[in-house]
Amino acid sequence: MHPSAFLACLLAACAGWAAAAEPPRADLSDEDRSRVRRVTAPATQFERAESFEAMQGGAGTVRKLINPDIFSHPAANLDFAGRQDFMVGNGLFRKDWVSSPSSTQASDGLGPLFNARSCQACHVKDGRGSVPGFDPLQQADAVALLLRLSLPDTAQEARERLKNAGRRMIPDPVYGHQFQPFAVAGLPAEGEIRISYREIPVDLNGEAPASLMAPSYELGKLGYGPMHPDVRISPRLAPPMPGLGLLEAIHPDDILANAAAERGDGISGRPNWAVDPGTGGRILGRFNWKAAEPSVARQSAKAFSGDMGLSSPLFPDHYGDCTPLQQACRAMPHGAQPHLGEHEVPGRLMDLVAIYALNLAVPQRREVDDARVLAGKKLFYEANCIGCHVPKYVTRRDADRPEHRFQLIWPYTDLLLHDMGPGLADGVEEGEASGREWRTPPLWGIGLTKVVNPAATWLHDGRARSLLEAILWHGGEAQAARDRVRAMTPAQRADLIRFLESL
Ligand code: HEC
Ligand code: HEC
Q1: Quick one: pLDDT band at residue 425, thresholds 50, 70, 90?
Q2: DSSP-based three-state secondary structure for 478
Q3: Does the beta carbon of 471 sit less than 6 angstroms from any atom of ligand 2?
Q4: In the chain, how long is the greatest CA-to-CA distance?
Q5: Which of 44, 241, 388, 427 has its CA 20 to 30 A from that of 72?
């Protein structure tokens, strides 16, 4: 181990080090290990596509017609029993929950405060959501742009409490962890979100300047009095769903190796650590825009609780994000049915939703052999986009589910946190992520974003209306990569975008 990597680890108090110090990837034989190293090495020639490059989601990749359902297929290698579960989970992902009491007892318990009635209202057709400011037609009873609320994390005591509660941010004392613009009948909603944009021109070599949209947020019609004066807002747009089970099956050693790498390119990814509810130990975070959540199952249970106000074994409070200071909310009826169990969403249903969310297939790439796409891929490497958007992995041999085991995948992410500069900073800490850090999002499927949801936009708060705008917002550790894109000729930029569109 390099001494400075060891020091960085001590400073970050990284309890996962013990695992990283063992021979890397205990799941692999020596022979496997050299094979894996060979197939995951960065590309060195760009005259033709690499082997298996089109199958970016491994054996689970779908090769279906490109239409708005392209993100909604089960992984191609999912077995029969898995497909049955996937179908039921699909129904639960799409289902509109209603408030209690109601005649449809198995679907009630919504709220009392909520952001949407169904998972799919935000993850539109299993793709990303759209921002109200850009999509006036957004479903009237859903806002796919969540506003997380947080107080600055200064007190040691507050941090301890957070850790024990398995939560990663200090909530507003009245409004809780997130702002909920909707409530069941008879209860005031928390208020309204107003978004305004300021245009920022950015010069580009050889063509007219691009125009970036910098958002600001205002909360109006507050239903429960003023917020804490120090409250900060972290806007988060619903991300796309394909390939999540494969991301969960990437070995932690591979992620930590990228964090520890001595690189000399100004890029230094950091892991976010979460508390393992089973053991109380630390576990690597990988999901959500700040990599704060360790698993798809936990993020899904958190969504039922925080976004829809539905209890489950992991988040057993029937009132979701209603705080003790929202008494009227806590006095409303809830939807747990004694004959179905103690929770509004019983464990068995939770598992089915998780199986669904773990097995949405990554679509096959298009045009991998096209000369312009290959030129764009070369530029993607040359601009060092791969410093964070790490192209390939081979998933663990011992992954939980057989369909996720030992797959060569191409997600273009390191699942690590990076300082992305002041332009993208939200000023909100989450777990070990700072107010300037974001997790590198996977890029697979990104070229099909608008096929699935024509109103979808990019980045954590959906401020980027095009892939080029998303790149031009990169700052901090990614400033050098972004400047290389600005300096490209218009034809080169078009090639780079064409490569992204082929993903
Ligand atoms: C109100 C909109 C909304 C609803 C409803 C919603 N989500 Fe999400 N979802 C989000 C947002 C926003 C994020 C990113 C969260 C963050 O960064 O904190 C997210 C993230 C996720 C992720 C992690 C994806 C990743 O790449 O990191 C999963 C899995 C997920 N949601 C599943 C679900 C499931 C299952 C449901 C229904 C039970 C659901 N979501 C309902 C908005 C929503
Ligand atoms: C230092 C790490 C880093 C480098 C280098 C980097 N990115 Fe990113 N990229 C990120 C992070 C982190 C985000 C998410 C930022 C946010 O949402 O605020 C992101 C977001 C994106 C997005 C939008 C993804 C989405 O789902 O909305 C695209 C497209 C993208 N990057 C392309 C590129 C390209 C092309 C390059 C090279 C020119 C590049 N990136 C270089 C870290 C990096």
Answers
A1: very high
A2: helix
A3: yes
A4: 68
A5: 388
Residue bearing the CA closest to ligand 1, atom 14: 288
Ligand 2 contact, 389 CB (< 6 A)? yes
Would the CA dihedral through 285, 414, 235, 420 be positive or negative? positive
What tens digit of pLDDT does each residue of 159-185 get? 665 555 555 788 999 999 999 999 999
Q: Do β-strands 437-439 and 417-419 pair in parallel, antiparallel, or remain unpaired?
A: antiparallel
Mutation choice for ligand 2 from 146, 440, 453, CB with most ligand atoms inside 8 A: 440
Residue 208 confidence class, pLDDT cut points 50, 70, 90: very high
Measure 441 CA to ligand 2 centroid, in angstroms: 7
Domain boundaries, the chain: 3-79+242-272+362-501, 88-239+296-358
If pLDDT is split at 50, 70 and 90, which confidence band does 337 have?
confident
Q: Is the pLDDT of residue 8 over 50?
A: no
Beta strands in 174-305 (DSSP E): 182-183, 192-204, 207-220, 232-237, 273-275, 282-284
Spell out the residues 6+ positions from residue 425 whose beta carbon is closer than 8 angstroms to its own: 435, 436
Phi, psi angle pair for 461, to nearest 5°: -115, 15
Q: How do beta strands 232-237 and 182-183 pair?
A: unpaired
Distance (Å, whole) CA 499 – CA 378? 9
Banded model confidence at residue 418, pLDDT cuts 50, 70, 90: very high
Distance CA 450, CA 56 (A): 19
Do the Cβ atoms of 20 and 26 come closer than 8 Å? no
Please report which ligand is nearest the Cα atom of 466. Answer: 2
pLDDT beyond 90 at 406 = yes
For the record, the structure tokens of 431 come out as: 């777990």
456 lines ligand 2 (CB under 6 A): no
User: Is the CB of residue 270 less than 8 Å from the CB of residue 416?
Assistant: yes
Which residues, including other chains, have CB under 8 Å from residue 152's CB and lie 6 or more apart?
170, 230, 232, 429
- Residue 303 · residue 311 · CB < 8 Å: no
**pLDDT (0 to 100) of residue 155:** 60
If phi > 0 it is left, if psi is from -120 to 50 it is alpha, else beta; for residue 149 that is beta
Q: How far is the CA of 184 from the centre of ligand 2 (A)?
A: 38
Q: Could you read off the pLDDT of 15-63 as tens digits, one per residue?
A: 444 444 445 899 999 999 999 999 999 999 999 999 999 999 999 999 9
Q: How far apart are CA 146 and CA 103, in angstroms?
A: 30
